[in-house]
Amino acid sequence: MNLDIVIGIIQIILIATTPLVFAGIGELVTEKTGVLNLGVEGMMLVGAVTAFVTLVITGSYFLAFLVSILSGALMSGLFAYLVLILMSNQVATGLALTIFGIGLSSMIGKQYIGTPIKGFNPYFFVVLSFVIVFLVHYFFYKTKLGLIFRAVGESHHSSHALGYSVIKIRLLGILFGGSMCGLAGSYMSICYAPMWQENMIAGRGWIALALVVFATWKPRRILVGAYIFGGVSILQMNLQAWGVNFPGQFFNMAPYLATMIVLVIISSNRLRIRLSAPASLTIPFFKGR
Amino acid sequence: MNKQLFLAGEVKMIKLITTTIFFLGLMLGSANADPKKIGFIYIGPPGDHGWTYMHDQGRQYMESQLGDAVSSTYIENVPENADAVRAIRKLAASGHDLIFTTSFNYMDQTLEVAKEFPDVKFEHATGYMRADNVSTYGARFYEGRTISGHIAGNLTKTNTIGYIGSFPIPEVVRGINAFYLAASKVNPDIKIKIIWAFTWYDPGKEADAAKTLINQGADILVQHTDTFAPCQEAEKAGVLAFGQASNQEEFCPNSHLTAIEDVWGPYYAERAKAVVDGTWSSSDTWEGMDKGMVVMSPYNAKIMPSDLIQEAVAMEIALKDGSMHAFEGPIYNQAGELMVPEGEVADDGMLLGMNWYVQGIDGELPQ
User: Fold this and answer.
1) pTM of the prediction?
2) What is the ipTM of this complex?
């Protein structure tokens, strides 16, 4: 095996893993503020289709990525209105958001299926994904505002009593998550596999959700987890192509299996799970109580 | 004439409408027979420019041929699990007379629903289990693989072919074997690298597999998955590729050698007509190039020498008139056992159940 092949494999892993990093870090910020948004897959799809359509119409990559970020934020804004203001159930609303996203993206993209476009260089986004992860880490653990965000996720009543606006902070967390999912979607349809195809996210949103648990809600571990998931999936392809007999089916469930193992480990000890998951995750905030 | 149904139930609505139509019909006396309702279950979206796209082209052809005698409905993106039962049942319960289920792994689900609705006719693509109201149909795509293999054997410079498979089922394995037999005939040094994606439809993963194969030295890509992502990757990397299920040349003009196109329209029209005429009966259809069910896309003269194009066309003719067969003996399996003796060709039973690689292919077939 020569160096070129190794470099090639690393390139493929970098390209394949980046959408998981974007969506994963976005969802992590949302969950850190105490909100679980299961709409990742739907927001990614809408981001993918809006970016693609914008690119076809305007020819501008910048506008395409901008529109995908905005549309992801818009989708998550809808979610925020439902769960923060109307106090709807977060799990049900998130699932509904995914189903809505699947339908909406199909409808928007109907006449753009099979339109050929020129792909955008993915490495810009590979670098950006690392930068964002480290910025999020810095934000949460080195800034006062980050501490407030975490406090809201841990105990919204204490934060409220201290005078912080729980709703406003959660809204920001949700919007950031939506923006990142939108960006991850546009990366899929413009860099990764430059095309629009219905359902082209193909489950990566769910892997991103699993990733947040796998990372035990620590930003930098998102990178570790994403590269384990992405790396394993590319390495098994290489093993197959080298003729090594390998159960490829196994790797389709590997991310979920790994997440379950992490869940078992962190749940084996009450203290450990309490130290990991934001304590107020999925609990709605009523101002009056 | 067609409308698209979504999975969340509006069955009640349809029932209401059909009942209304029924009573209206009674009141008016039926001067014109109601159009027969033909349903389709798709594994992907009609816009995949691959497998499902060609079934939808077939559906549209059927409508154009039969006009007002039929109306058609399709449900897209139906997973190959218990959801398929619900989707098929939904069509059956809403008054469809004939239902095409267009993927191999709808087999059990099709039979299950067929048992509940003995008056509804079903047609299951690429399967082998039939019943009184369940037909099977398929196309001999492997004939096209023979031609692809011949072209690849002649054009490869690295003697390495990358093959992206979906699932290790006979339909796909047959294609790999037919491809390899033809390729190794013109180029005994040829190696074939196979990646199983374990999905029919995931542009990202198909692109990953294509990149991995190119990285490992493949200079021609063959795919048995549903999107044009591999062909786009080939174009980007400057290697060659075969399109899948439909002509994909517009997505990779400098890489696309040819594609094996599935042409379902005439079959769909014939079967729907049989339902209209009341002559439908359960049958097993497996046609190839001779009946026009499998067609090669135009050969790309930009990247193929003209004598090779002529050879490919001659092979098409030979496969059509029967003077050539994709599986001519002697054929050995990987263990060196003689599977098809010299002077014979593989029979349909062997082809339908093919779960072994021919000699010369490296690697084990996942079970």
Assistant:
1) 0.87
2) 0.90
